[in-house]
Design goal:
By secondary structure, the protein is mainly beta. About 10% of the residues lie in helices and about 55% in strands.
Protein backbone atom coordinates (compact mmCIF):
# COMPACT_ATOMS: atom_id res chain seq x y z
CA UNK A 1 0.00 0.00 0.00
CA UNK A 2 2.79 2.37 0.93
CA UNK A 3 4.58 1.60 -2.36
CA UNK A 4 1.41 2.41 -4.27
CA UNK A 5 1.05 5.72 -2.47
CA UNK A 6 4.67 6.56 -3.15
CA UNK A 7 4.25 5.70 -6.81
CA UNK A 8 1.19 7.95 -7.10
CA UNK A 9 3.02 10.80 -5.36
CA UNK A 10 5.99 10.34 -7.68
CA UNK A 11 3.77 10.38 -10.77
CA UNK A 12 1.94 13.50 -9.59
CA UNK A 13 5.27 15.21 -8.82
CA UNK A 14 6.71 14.35 -12.23
CA UNK A 15 3.54 15.54 -13.98
CA UNK A 16 3.56 18.81 -12.03
CA UNK A 17 7.26 19.41 -12.75
CA UNK A 18 6.81 18.67 -16.46
CA UNK A 19 3.84 21.04 -16.66
CA UNK A 20 5.79 23.82 -14.95
CA UNK A 21 8.79 23.34 -17.25
CA UNK A 22 6.58 23.41 -20.34
CA UNK A 23 4.81 26.55 -19.14
CA UNK A 24 8.16 28.20 -18.48
CA UNK A 25 9.56 27.25 -21.87
CA UNK A 26 6.52 28.64 -23.72
CA UNK A 27 6.20 31.84 -21.71
CA UNK A 28 7.11 35.17 -23.28
CA UNK A 29 9.33 37.87 -21.73
CA UNK A 30 7.30 40.37 -19.74
CA UNK A 31 8.90 43.59 -21.05
CA UNK A 32 10.08 44.82 -24.46
CA UNK A 33 11.91 48.09 -25.12
CA UNK A 34 13.64 49.34 -28.24
CA UNK A 35 14.16 51.80 -31.07
CA UNK A 36 12.14 52.27 -34.23
CA UNK A 37 12.11 53.96 -37.63
CA UNK A 38 8.78 55.51 -38.64
CA UNK A 39 7.46 56.53 -42.07
CA UNK A 40 4.08 58.27 -42.04
CA UNK A 41 1.83 60.66 -43.93
CA UNK A 42 1.24 64.03 -42.28
CA UNK A 43 -0.79 67.02 -43.42
CA UNK A 44 1.77 69.63 -44.38
CA UNK A 45 1.55 70.81 -47.97
CA UNK A 46 1.31 74.40 -49.17
CA UNK A 47 -1.61 73.26 -51.35
CA UNK A 48 -3.68 73.46 -48.15
CA UNK A 49 -2.59 76.99 -47.34
CA UNK A 50 -5.85 78.50 -48.63
CA UNK A 51 -9.47 77.46 -48.46
CA UNK A 52 -10.81 75.62 -50.30
CA UNK A 53 -7.71 73.87 -51.74
CA UNK A 54 -7.92 72.35 -55.21
CA UNK A 55 -6.85 68.97 -53.76
CA UNK A 56 -7.72 68.17 -50.14
CA UNK A 57 -5.07 65.43 -49.98
CA UNK A 58 -2.40 67.66 -48.47
CA UNK A 59 -0.17 64.98 -46.98
CA UNK A 60 3.56 64.41 -47.41
CA UNK A 61 5.72 61.49 -46.31
CA UNK A 62 7.60 62.21 -43.10
CA UNK A 63 10.44 60.10 -41.70
CA UNK A 64 11.29 59.87 -38.04
CA UNK A 65 12.67 57.81 -35.19
CA UNK A 66 11.41 56.91 -31.77
CA UNK A 67 11.17 54.48 -28.90
CA UNK A 68 8.72 51.69 -28.12
CA UNK A 69 7.75 50.00 -24.84
CA UNK A 70 5.65 46.84 -24.54
CA UNK A 71 4.28 45.11 -21.45
CA UNK A 72 3.11 41.56 -22.18
CA UNK A 73 0.13 40.62 -20.01
CA UNK A 74 0.29 37.06 -21.39
CA UNK A 75 1.08 35.25 -24.64
CA UNK A 76 -1.83 36.88 -26.44
CA UNK A 77 -2.36 40.43 -25.12
CA UNK A 78 0.07 43.28 -24.45
CA UNK A 79 0.03 46.95 -23.53
CA UNK A 80 1.81 48.67 -26.41
CA UNK A 81 3.16 52.25 -26.44
CA UNK A 82 5.42 54.36 -28.61
CA UNK A 83 6.79 57.87 -29.05
CA UNK A 84 8.34 59.20 -32.26
CA UNK A 85 9.83 62.45 -33.54
CA UNK A 86 10.13 63.60 -37.14
CA UNK A 87 13.02 66.05 -37.59
CA UNK A 88 11.92 66.93 -41.11
CA UNK A 89 10.01 70.20 -41.28
CA UNK A 90 6.61 70.23 -42.99
CA UNK A 91 6.99 73.47 -44.89
CA UNK A 92 4.89 76.59 -44.44
CA UNK A 93 2.65 76.32 -41.38
CA UNK A 94 -1.08 76.96 -41.31
CA UNK A 95 -3.53 77.34 -38.45
CA UNK A 96 -3.94 73.54 -38.34
CA UNK A 97 -0.46 72.12 -38.95
CA UNK A 98 3.17 73.01 -39.54
CA UNK A 99 6.73 72.25 -38.46
CA UNK A 100 8.28 69.14 -36.98
CA UNK A 101 5.93 66.53 -35.57
CA UNK A 102 5.84 64.41 -32.44
CA UNK A 103 3.55 61.43 -32.00
CA UNK A 104 2.61 59.46 -28.88
CA UNK A 105 0.42 56.33 -28.96
CA UNK A 106 -0.71 54.08 -26.11
CA UNK A 107 -2.92 51.06 -26.71
CA UNK A 108 -3.38 47.31 -26.92
CA UNK A 109 -1.73 44.64 -29.07
CA UNK A 110 -3.46 41.25 -29.34
CA UNK A 111 -2.61 38.15 -31.34
CA UNK A 112 -0.41 35.09 -31.38
CA UNK A 113 3.14 34.53 -30.09
CA UNK A 114 5.01 31.66 -31.73
CA UNK A 115 8.50 30.39 -31.11
CA UNK A 116 9.96 32.41 -34.00
CA UNK A 117 7.12 34.60 -35.24
CA UNK A 118 4.25 36.65 -33.86
CA UNK A 119 1.19 38.11 -35.60
CA UNK A 120 -0.94 40.82 -33.97
CA UNK A 121 -3.66 43.41 -34.42
CA UNK A 122 -3.21 46.78 -32.73
CA UNK A 123 -5.44 49.67 -31.62
CA UNK A 124 -3.94 52.76 -29.99
CA UNK A 125 -5.29 56.24 -29.22
CA UNK A 126 -2.80 59.07 -28.86
CA UNK A 127 -1.68 62.55 -29.85
CA UNK A 128 -0.07 64.20 -32.87
CA UNK A 129 1.71 67.49 -32.19
CA UNK A 130 3.00 70.06 -34.70
CA UNK A 131 5.75 72.40 -33.51
CA UNK A 132 5.32 75.35 -35.90
CA UNK A 133 1.62 76.05 -36.54
CA UNK A 134 0.18 79.55 -36.98
CA UNK A 135 -1.39 80.71 -33.73
CA UNK A 136 -1.85 84.44 -34.28
CA UNK A 137 -0.49 87.76 -35.54
CA UNK A 138 1.91 90.18 -33.86
CA UNK A 139 0.11 93.27 -32.53
CA UNK A 140 -0.10 96.07 -35.08
CA UNK A 141 1.50 94.04 -37.86
CA UNK A 142 0.66 91.33 -40.36
CA UNK A 143 3.54 89.18 -39.09
CA UNK A 144 2.38 85.65 -38.26
CA UNK A 145 3.26 84.05 -34.94
CA UNK A 146 3.81 80.33 -34.51
CA UNK A 147 3.54 77.77 -31.74
CA UNK A 148 2.74 74.17 -30.89
CA UNK A 149 -0.59 72.63 -31.88
CA UNK A 150 -1.67 69.17 -30.65
CA UNK A 151 -4.59 67.08 -31.91
CA UNK A 152 -6.13 63.74 -30.97
CA UNK A 153 -5.08 60.76 -33.10
CA UNK A 154 -5.96 57.06 -33.20
CA UNK A 155 -4.06 54.21 -34.87
CA UNK A 156 -5.26 50.85 -36.13
CA UNK A 157 -3.09 48.27 -37.83
CA UNK A 158 -1.19 45.01 -37.76
CA UNK A 159 2.23 43.96 -36.50
CA UNK A 160 4.50 41.08 -37.54
CA UNK A 161 7.39 40.05 -35.29
CA UNK A 162 10.40 37.78 -35.77
CA UNK A 163 12.35 36.42 -32.79
CA UNK A 164 15.94 35.45 -33.70
CA UNK A 165 16.47 34.72 -29.99
CA UNK A 166 14.45 34.82 -26.78
CA UNK A 167 15.64 38.34 -25.93
CA UNK A 168 15.51 40.01 -29.37
CA UNK A 169 12.51 40.89 -31.55
CA UNK A 170 12.41 42.45 -35.01
CA UNK A 171 9.04 44.09 -35.61
CA UNK A 172 7.20 45.55 -38.61
CA UNK A 173 4.00 47.62 -38.20
CA UNK A 174 1.62 48.88 -40.89
CA UNK A 175 -1.70 50.64 -40.47
CA UNK A 176 -3.80 53.79 -40.64
CA UNK A 177 -3.94 56.85 -38.40
CA UNK A 178 -7.11 58.89 -37.88
CA UNK A 179 -6.37 62.49 -36.87
CA UNK A 180 -9.00 64.93 -35.63
CA UNK A 181 -7.98 68.44 -36.73
CA UNK A 182 -9.76 71.03 -34.61
CA UNK A 183 -11.12 74.31 -35.93
CA UNK A 184 -8.66 77.09 -35.14
CA UNK A 185 -10.06 80.55 -35.88
CA UNK A 186 -6.85 82.34 -36.84
CA UNK A 187 -7.49 84.45 -39.94
CA UNK A 188 -4.72 87.05 -40.50
CA UNK A 189 -5.35 89.75 -43.10
CA UNK A 190 -4.32 88.55 -46.51
CA UNK A 191 -4.67 84.85 -45.64
CA UNK A 192 -7.59 82.48 -45.97
CA UNK A 193 -6.99 79.51 -43.68
CA UNK A 194 -9.22 76.50 -43.23
CA UNK A 195 -11.31 76.72 -40.07
CA UNK A 196 -13.23 73.45 -39.81
CA UNK A 197 -13.27 70.40 -37.57
CA UNK A 198 -12.33 67.43 -39.70
CA UNK A 199 -10.77 63.97 -39.51
CA UNK A 200 -8.06 62.81 -41.86
CA UNK A 201 -6.93 59.22 -42.49
CA UNK A 202 -3.26 58.60 -43.30
CA UNK A 203 -0.92 55.64 -43.71
CA UNK A 204 1.89 54.77 -41.32
CA UNK A 205 4.54 52.07 -41.05
CA UNK A 206 7.34 51.37 -38.60
CA UNK A 207 10.29 49.00 -38.18
CA UNK A 208 11.71 48.33 -34.74
CA UNK A 209 14.32 46.29 -32.91
CA UNK A 210 13.36 45.36 -29.36
CA UNK A 211 15.13 43.89 -26.35
CA UNK A 212 12.89 41.47 -24.44
CA UNK A 213 13.34 40.65 -20.77
Amino acid sequence: MRDAVRFVILCVSLFTLTTLLQAQSTSVPRYEVGLQYVLKQVDASNTCFVSPPANRDCSILSQGAGVRFVYNLNRFVAIDSEWSFSPEGTGTGTNQWGGRTQQALFGVKAGWHGRRFGFFGRLAPGLLSYGHAVNGVQNGTTQLTYGRLTDFQAYGGVAVEYYPSRHVALRYDAGQTYTNYRANNVQPQGYSFLNIDESQRSGQMAMAILYRF
